[in-house]
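Q: Fold this one first, please.
A: Sequence and structure below.
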Amino acid sequence: MATKIGTWLMAAGALVAFVGLCFLPAAFGSGADKTMLGAGTVVIATGILLIAAGVYVKARVLGTEAPPVSASPNIKRGRSKPGCDQCGQDEPVIQCRVHQIHLCAACLSKHYDFRSCAYVPSTRRTVIPKTSSAAYSQTASN
């Protein structure tokens, strides 16, 4: 229903803008009346405003009907063991900042492009179980 209203608003706006354009010959003709130029400009602007309102109504309808964007299926969240984003097997050693992926040494040789990519050491570490993390913190403080 709202798409039909948007279409009718755009059609009515085009008609009103055309009527406004018909004022221009009276403003620039031989017996030029400068008040007709102002009136024509106002009518044209009103027509364009109606066209814009029709586009807005149609855009609002499209925004409500669009399905929500879900995360890409390649991204795995909440993994217990972090790994390379391409092969998922080895521990990542470097991160490509341009593509935002962590790479192992084997995948880095396939991905390497010195012209566009910027690499930094990977911040992913292997997961330490909670029982050993307490022991690790005690031995580190000694």
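Q: Good. Now the second chain.
A: Here it is, same layout.
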Amino acid sequence: MDKYLDKYAARLAHYGPLAARILLAQVFIVSGFGKWKAFAATAAFMGNLGLPASQLLLVLTIALELGGGILLVLGWQARALALAFFVFTFLTAVVVHPFWSAEAQNLGGQLNNFMKNLAIMGGMLYVVIHGPGPLSLGGSQRNAPHVPQHKKR
């Protein structure tokens, strides 16, 4: 299996980060568009959750999801955007999907959404650490820190 993966590693290293950014960002772009189309209902939903200034918060959410999602696909300021999405997704998981206080009929759905948010956070953390990769406006690894490799003992 390793030989098979090694054969395609260079191609994956070149195109993989772009594919990953698209897959991560599409969730937010689609969600942001949906919030924009149903602004009043979404603001009311957020207000019912007890969030203050729900309309202002919704405008900021839409800006992050739509604008930030598109910029993440392009790879511009990808590390900073991924960090913003990481924090946003964590807050969304805790505030919107609190499975620990869900009623029995909603427990499975809330737990599933909470766990999906954790998975998205993992992808965003990877972008924060390694940068946008090639095929990005942010450059290959130009803005990613050097991460030293651990030596085997």
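Q: Anything worth noting on the second one?
A: The longest helix spans residues 2-37.
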